[in-house]
Amino acid sequence: MNIVxxxxxxxxxxxxxxxxxxxxxxxGNFAVVRERIPLDLKAGVTPASYAGVTVxxxxxxxxxxxxxxxxxFRVLEQSYRADPISQGLLMSLNEGRVLDxxxxxxxxxxxxxxxxxxxxxxxxxxGGAATYGQRFMATQAALGDGSAAGQPIIEVDGxxxxxxxxxxxxxxxxxxxxxKPTLRWQIASDQAAHVDAELSYVTGGMGxxxxxxxxxxxxxxxxxxxxxxxxxNQSGRQFDEARIKLMAGDVNKIQPQQPGLVSWMPDxxxxxxxxxxAVTEKSFDEFHLYSLxxxxxxxxRETKQVEFLRATGVKTKTFYVYRGALLxxxxxxxxxxxxxxxxxxxxxxxxxKVWVMREFLNSEENGLGQPLxxxxxxxxxxxxxxxxxxxxxxxxxxxxxxxERVRLYSGDAFDVVGERRRTDHRLSNSNDQLEEAFEIRLxxxxxxxVEVRVEERLYRWVNWQVxxxxxxxxxxxxxxxxxxxxxxxxxxxVLTYRVRYSWK
Length: 504
Known about the structure:
Shape: elongated
Number of domains: 3
């Protein structure tokens, strides 16, 4: 984290950054880094360098400015190098030259073997900052003829070896060598000035995600909810005492894949009564921004977790959903309607599984009432016999605004099963009208009654009419209806309905 003249870059450490870094980390495995760096500008053009940016920096995202407005300057030229000195890089820089290699025998005695570096086998690691062309060229360099990817070739005594004969010894480093990923600038200024500049850039290799633990008693309709933020730093740099914000939402970001193609990334009640320990949240543009309460150090290749939500007594509801027809995806949603109409047996295969659904309202009255970022959700239930928690399922909670309902599938019921069969099928002689009748049996082997929401997709056609039914239903959308059925303890409930399709 140093600003130094180019000629002294390799060995001299100058002034450190004057303020702690600030990070805004996004769901899509990228972050915005902001930090203050000192610039001693002279009148005219000043060369400057900053060693300490990330390996996955996006060079064209860099912004260098004076937030105080003390000096007017502009960047004439910028370059980014992410190839810190390593054995592989030095081998590549010495291709075509003769080097000394130290060879040690089993007794530790050393001898010198001289060899010519025909090919280093070094493949640059461009990381997230690489363009497609850089990655393509690196891959081609590594593959070569496809049979010896990344292997060095050393000529020793007129013979070629596909390995290093020993530990290579290199000439001393030049002033142009770098030890960390480095930004370099040519900066034009009308007058000499000392500036505490702000450096901002987008980097890959850093992301965050939320996770939730939902804990329910063995019996009852409330739960306790604990939310965690997990931050993963794979950026190639450590951030000391950083101010951290987390952006929740589907932020659009272009990711290069191959030439000519890009992919578009779509990719609580906060803890109260703890003073500065609370994570704060606010609406920001079309997203939500969470701020950690105190600076944190993020080491490279470190995963750090912070509790950001804790709520108790959240009122919840458990119910069951039964979708009795086993339908393949494309045909179920209208693919080739002519085939669906004429396939007599389509939709007659029965699914016995009944889903367990858990639902709660994200409202202040229910102990929550703050936007919930997307994350993995685990369900636990407390065993009253010994007080221990047992894992009973998991799912993913999507980004949920306040005052919206959270509905999660946690698994299939063991003691509640369904059975669906078609009892009638009548196609008119003119082939423009069809009637089908179904019988749905729901069996409950629990000691208490349960509500089952029977969802039926009227998959034959968009023009339909339910002409007979044993219970009322709600129309969910153009082709889906729902019956709400109560099944008594250790009992069975039978639901029937008849639907008429018309192609007139």
